[in-house]
Design a protein that fits this description.
alpha/beta; seven-stranded mixed β-sheet; two-stranded antiparallel ribbon
Amino acid sequence: MSSTSVSSTSVSSMSVSSSLSERVDAALRDVQDFPSPGILFKDVTPVLADGQLFGDVIRDLAERRRGSIDLVVGIEARGFILGAALAHELGVGFVPVRKAGKLPGAVLGLTYDLEYGSATVEIHEDAFVGGERVLLVDDVLATGGTAAAACELLEQAGAEVVAFETLVELAFLPGRERLAGREVHSTVVVP
């Protein structure tokens, strides 16, 4: 009987996640040629604008991570929205990963290569005491450069990156490969 119970719970959880994934996917807006010609941008703002759906996304993330993390870290800019709401739901703190020059005071930074140049991400120098278990959050996983750089920066600062959560994963790009060896969870996967 116990195995039937576990089985039922697993099926129930899967259908809730499947249903949520379908709802999020249906709410995404495709924007052609943004930010440059030939790019089909997956806009998550309609998900954020739907209070019920946004709340369901945050509760789903919280259910998966409750008790396993000390802090939520969000990547600029939409990762701030998801991450801050999730941190509030979990009753833990939030740390922003920002583009260079956006944080006041002493910072730690990491410069990484992009397909069209380079970029730098930064965190406050005193964001971590050391050993905090953190969840890194962003809205879309595409090429994975920023997420991989953020993970490296957080670990250099003394944090333990437990996992990476994203609302949308563009599976036709190498984002997941750039995060090889890390737990990655995506609400919606675009093939």
